[in-house]
Write a structure and sequence with these properties.
The chain is α+β, with helices and mostly antiparallel strands. It has 10 helices and 11 strands. The strands form 3 sheets. The protein has a 5-stranded mixed beta sheet, sandwiched between helices. A 3-stranded antiparallel beta sheet has the order 1-8-2. The two termini are 35 Å apart. 38% of the residues are buried.
């Protein structure tokens, strides 16, 4: 909802003559909280209901966390804009410990991500990793009740919801490479035949460097099947027209891991993604 409000505010500044309404919806990904995403269908669980609303004309656009958006969109749908990225890093959150290094053997760490699970297991085999689902309040509540010694969350969500003080440490991408699209928001639209060019209307919200980076990252994910069932990381940075793309794929237990990185022209993100 924060993301929808943010996009509405941006659009209101661009088009003050428009009345922009938010249609609040709950998705299957919000409702099924007792199982990990990899077991109940993966990324598409957070977008399907929103796509149905657009197809039926009840909504004109949908705002997503890009890492929740499947690599292949259904026919008739497109990403119209990728907004400037928030902090893409993973955040270590704990009431009693300052970092993963401080956790004692047997301490329980919560995460909903196979990527984070494999990265933690590889570096800290003495820790116990348990699933953690639900919205931010739910996850923090479970930590505060003592169900976990620490939890790993996306820094972007904590910062957007005004909770940066809950972050005890930010994990260096070199040690905890982010997921494809982490920290970025995207606007999805459906094809229309009423003469309104939503792609053009939303173009001013598109942040080119972020769009290039996430296109490369999503290409890596697409090559690997692009689901929540593969521990996969892909993270690109863009500076002065040049891209640095790093990627990692692993087994869930972190025992086997492969990584690669490339540098090249940011204007060719798909090619760099394919290469890495």
């Amino acid at each position: 909802m924060w993301q929808a409000e943010h996009v509405r505010a941006r659009l209101t500044l661009l088009y003050p003559q428009c009345d922009i309404k938010i249609v609040g919806m709950s998705t299957k990904g919000d409702q099924i909280l007792d199982r990990t995403l990899s077991k109940v269908g993966g990324k598409g669980l957070f977008v399907k209901e929103l796509e149905v609303a657009m197809a039926e004309g009840r909504a004109d656009l949908a705002v997503h966390s890009l890492k929740d958006v499947p690599m292949e969109l259904p026919e008739g749908f497109a990403l119209a804009a990728v907004l400037e990225r928030e902090d893409p890093r993973d955040a270590f959150v704990s009431n009693d410990y300052a970092s993963l290094d401080e956790l004692p053997a047997g301490a329980v760490v919560g995460t909903s991500s196979l990527r984070r699970q494999s990265l933690i297991a590889a570096r800290y085999p003495q820790l116990v990793i348990k699933p953690l689902r639900g919205n931010l309040d739910t996850r923090l509540g479970k930590l505060d009740r003592g169900d976990y010694a620490a939890i790993i969350l996306a820094a972007a969500g904590l910062k957007r919801l005004g909770l940066p003080e809950r972050i005890r440490a930010l994990l260096d991408p070199a040690a905890s490479l982010p997921a494809a699209g982490q920290g970025a928001m995207a606007i999805e639209i459906a094809e229309r035949n009423d003469g309104i060019d939503l792609m053009a209307l939303l173009a001013p919200l598109n942040h080119e460097a972020t769009a290039q980076a996430v296109t490369a990252e999503r290409k890596v994910s697409k090559v690997f099947g692009g689901s929540c069932q593969v521990p996969l990381a892909a993270y690109a940075t863009v500076e002065d027209g040049q891209m640095h793309l790093r990627a990692m794929v692993a087994t869930p237990d972190g025992v086997r891991m492969a990584s690669a990185e490339v540098r090249g022209a940011a204007a060719e993100p798909e090619a760099l993604g394919e290469q890495v």
